Amino acid sequence: MLPSTAVIFPAAGKSQRFGGKEKKPFALIDNRAVWLRTVEQFVNRDEIKQLIIVISEEDLEMFKRKFGANIMFFDIQIVTGGKERFESVENALEILKPEIELVAIHDAVRPCLTSSFIDTVFKAAAVHGAAIPAIEVADTLKESAHGNFVDKTVSRKGLWQAQTPQVFQKKILVEAFEKRGSIKEPITDDAQLVECLGQKVKLVPGLKTNIKITSSEDLGLVDLILKNKKPDKVRPLRPFEDDDLYR
Ligand SMILES: Nc1ccn([C@@H]2O[C@H](COP(=O)(O)OP(=O)(O)OP(=O)(O)O)[C@@H](O)[C@H]2O)c(=O)n1
Ligand SMILES: C[C@](O)(CO)[C@H](O)COP(=O)(O)O
């Protein structure tokens, strides 16, 4: 049995790159909002004792009005978002229940994951204290300052694309957020704060289908993935054996 776990779903961004008529967590895929499709991947798991969604101040009234029944059904708590993603997560950390041991943070806009994939990341975090899924960069990388012509080709060696859920022992994550003041670079995921503590973060093979909806064309891709995959039959890119967790 996995340790008692809370899942935080940041959904308080501005969806600027999405450019749709509503923000991406509330966009519909086959008549069901993206955030609902994401959260439902995590319900009915014995180790999950708390669900928290982060919603921006300006969306709160709409969210409660439109999704009241779903909020009750999932027993999901709502927290107000911050300006940056990490500030949204920080607000959610404040209401963690005392019995929580592991905290998973999963973008509300990544609905294409499977329960075996969640199992693998959760188990790795239980063993190592911190774990994230990631995919090794497969394409050739070009640098272009202005996005019109190539400046140069850069090495992809050792580069990985981070996904969510990112999962941490509560005390490690809380300490990482307390010490975040010393970080000067932009903070784009939660693992970055934990890395800065000097804590090792275990890499777990990411799922190719676990895409983050960023622009509106991603909605069509997600729709295709959800319609064409039997979610729990999707395997990680490389089979990940339990032994791998301890390396
Ligand atoms: N201040 C913020 C910023 C982002 N997010 C959430 O974090 C997830 C991943 O962020 P991203 O894809 O960058 O979303 P946006 O910030 O909304 O996108 P954009 O940069 O295009 O505005 C999304 O579910 C988003 O709602 C959040 O809760 N609070
Ligand atoms: C957390 C994340 O989804 C991992 O890939 C990503 O870092 C979010 O980045 P964004 O800049 O908020 O899109």
TrEMBL record:
Listed GO biological process terms: isopentenyl diphosphate biosynthetic process, methylerythritol 4-phosphate pathway
Catalyzed reactions per annotation: 2-C-methyl-D-erythritol 4-phosphate + CTP + H(+) = 4-CDP-2-C-methyl-D-erythritol + diphosphate
GO molecular function terms attached to this record: 2-C-methyl-D-erythritol 4-phosphate cytidylyltransferase activity
Alphabetized UniProt keyword annotations: Isoprene biosynthesis, Nucleotidyltransferase, Transferase
Residues marked Transition state stabilizer (site): 17, 24
Keyword Nucleotidyltransferase among UniProt keywords: yes
Domain of life of the organism encoding this protein: Bacteria
Site (Positions MEP for the nucleophilic attack): 156, 212
Keyword Zinc: no
A Pfam family recorded for this sequence: IspD
Pathway noted in the entry: Isoprenoid biosynthesis; isopentenyl diphosphate biosynthesis via DXP pathway; isopentenyl diphosphate from 1-deoxy-D-xylulose 5-phosphate: step 2/6
EC class (word): transferase
Function (record text): Catalyzes the formation of 4-diphosphocytidyl-2-C-methyl-D-erythritol from CTP and 2-C-methyl-D-erythritol 4-phosphate (MEP).
Family to which the UniProt record says this protein belongs: Belongs to the IspD/TarI cytidylyltransferase family. IspD subfamily.
Protein name: 2-C-methyl-D-erythritol 4-phosphate cytidylyltransferase
